[in-house]
# Entry
Amino acid sequence: MRLLCQAARTDALASQESGDRIAVLPAWRETDYFSPKERAALELVEAVTLVADGQVPDAVYAQAAGVLSKEEIAAVEWLAVVINAWNRIAISSRYPVRA
# Structure
């Protein structure tokens, strides 16, 4: 996971994303840095990541559908699937991540 976090951080900074927003991402619920659309996407990604605990909750999907288009929801869900797949590959293969 650290490898993906490092790559995502590098890509985000290269795309002119704020260092402050990247730094507070783990605490996104407790900040005002993210728009309602971004919050819905983050909540959806977390729900997809935890799908083994049950389904994506109806409330999470409804919140996302309230601010994201069907295409955006599909993109967020696929992004979560890809990120989780790479994390599982890296973790299960014990991929060494160096600072």
User: Anything to note?
Assistant: The radius of gyration is 14 Å. Residues 3 and 97 are 6 Å apart (CA to CA). The mean pLDDT is 86. The helical segments are 2-14, 19-24, 36-49, 58-67, 70-92.
